[in-house]
Amino acid sequence: SFPTRRSSDLSAWYLSTQLDGDAHDRVVSVALAAAGLAPLLPGLPPGLDVVRRQGSGKRSWLFLLNHTAAPVDVPASGVELLSGTEVAGSVRLSPGGAAVIREESR
């Protein structure tokens, strides 16, 4: 448990130490869970940016950026806008790779 302070629906967490990578990840996971937040696409490795932007209607865009040194397969379906190719099931991001998927219905 961490010292917290609550005011209406806001809360603050206090932690005065420098954590190693694993401890930092555990603290952030606990804080995110307490706030009711979860990864957009669970199960992906660290070092992958995943952002979904919702347009009007049912169209959305999935922005992906791989900061790792290994290829990563990401579940996705739609049209990959940087290459113009159709994506059905997953897209492979090379190390340092990026993709923008136009998703037709979500």
Walk me through the structure:
The structure is a single chain. This protein is mainly β and 106 residues long. Helices cover 13% and strands 43% of the residues. The chain has one helix and seven strands. The chain has one helix spanning 21-34, and strands at residues 4-7, 10-13, 48-54, 60-66, 72-80, 85-93, 98-103. The strands form two sheets. The protein has a five-stranded antiparallel β-sheet with strand order 3-4-7-5-6, with no helix packed on it. A hairpin with a 2-residue loop joins strand 1 (4-7) and strand 2 (10-13). The protein is flat. The protein starts with a strand and ends with a strand. The mean pLDDT is 88.
Helix content: 10-25%
> What summary fits the major beta sheet?
5 strands, antiparallel
Give the N-terminus to C-terminus distance in angstroms.
37 Å
| Multimeric status of the protein | single chain
How many helices?
1
Would you list the SSEs in sequence order as H and E?
A: EEHEEEEE
The computed structural class is mainly beta
Unreliably modeled segments: none
Relative strand content: 35-45%
Count of strand segments: 7
What key attributes describe this structure?
106 residues, mainly beta, 5-stranded antiparallel beta sheet, 1 helix, 43% strand
Which helices and strands appear, and what pairs or packs with what?
Blueprint: E1 4-7, E2 10-13, H1 21-34, E3 48-54, E4 60-66, E5 72-80, E6 85-93, E7 98-103
Antiparallel strand pairs: 1-2, 3-4, 4-7, 5-6, 5-7
